[in-house]
Each structure stands twice: as structure tokens, then as C-alpha cells.
Amino acid sequence: MRVLGVDPGLTRCGLGVVEGGVGRPLTLIAVDVVRTPPGDEIGARLLAIERAVEAWLAEHQPDVVAVERVFSQHNVRTVMGTAQASAVAITAAARHGIPVALHTPSEMKAAVTGSGRADKAQVGAMVTRILRLSAAPRPADAADALGLAICQVWRGGAQARIASALATATAARS
Fold first, then answer.
1. Which residue has the higher pLDDT, 171 or 22?
2. Catalytic residue among 19, 50, 141, 144, which?
3. 165 vs 23, 99, 162, 173, CA distance in Å?
4. pTM for this structure?
């Protein structure tokens, strides 16, 4: 399974692709961060993120896109920008017919580190270990994008196997 993880944000939008399966080693395919200047008009910033996501979808052809689920924060402006960047990634995936999975930050942290309350340094360290990298991806948005992709392979892949086994068992009984 190949997964594109997206850590949405207007100033920094993390993108990371991993490949592998449940019970198999994961491989880093690519990682980067799309940056947009805070002073630019919102439409231009969202368009830059969309172009980058579209390019990654075309180049890496993921089986699924894992996006961080927007959660409530005290800073409404930050939440709005995150939600807008998230919607761009979801829309681009839908345009390509690629399924989208949403994971909360705590779900991703729990999958990658074993604790839903892990800090950014812990996520970076575990992403480095899981993908057998020589250094942690920087900035943290890059590591978070990879963490989302890892979470989807491990959790989404297991869910897909269970659903497939149930469908097979149901068909066998019919």
C-alpha cells in the first residue's frame, strides 16, 4: 500500500509518502513541506498547496491519502487555515478518485509512538526509527505527514484486511 500523508497548514503543509503493509517494513518514498508566505492572499496560498498536492498525486500515485482531521483549537484563525488546507487536499484526492482517510493528531501519535499525548520530538524520533532514516524529517510538519501515512498503513491496512475477510466469509456462507 502506498499512502500520501498530509499535515495541512497554510504556512507549512507537510507531505509524505510511505509504502508498505501491515506486518511489513515501511519505506519512505518522499517527504517535503509546501510553504506559503503569510502575507499572500488566501486564494494564492490555497492554490499553491493545491498545485503541490496535485503534483504529488500524479508523481507518487498513492492508494489512499491520509489527512489530519481538523480539531478545535483556541486560535480560530489557525483552525480555519488548517481546515482550508485540509479541504484542498481532500478535494484533490477526490478529483483523482483516491480514497481519503482522516486521522486525529492523537490517533496518529498513538499509532506511531504508543501515546496519543506524544510531543513533536517523540513523533519525529519514532518516524525516524520506523522508516530507518538517518535523521528526523524537518520541520515537524514533514514528520507529522509521514506519521499520518504510517498510521494509515497500520490502522487502515488492518481495517481493510478485516473488511475483506468479513466480505469473504459472508460470501462463502451465501
1. 22
2. 141
3. 17, 20, 5, 12
4. 0.90
Average pLDDT over every residue of 113-140: 97
Helices 120-130, 140-151: axis angle to 10 degrees equals 60
Going from N- to C-terminal start, the domains of the chain cover 2-173
Report whether 27 contacts 3 (CB < 8 A): no
Catalytic one among 7, 19, 50, 144? 7
Cell numbers standing for residue 59:
508523481
- Given a cut of 60, is residue 115 above it in pLDDT? yes
Pick the catalytic residue from 19, 50, 68, 144. Answer: 68
**141 catalytic per annotation:** yes
Q: Is 68 a catalytic residue?
A: yes
User: What single DSSP character describes residue 101?
Assistant: E
Is 119 known to be catalytic? no
Range list of β-strands (E), 10-72: 12-19, 27-35, 64-68
Compute how many other C-beta atoms are within 10 angstroms of the C-beta atom of residue 119: 12
Question: What's the pLDDT tens digit per position in 46-63?
Answer: 999 999 999 999 999 999
**Minimal CA–CA distance to 82: which of 10, 170, 169, 3?**
10
Residue with cell 513533536: 120
| Domain at 2-173: CATH architecture | 2-Layer Sandwich (3.30)
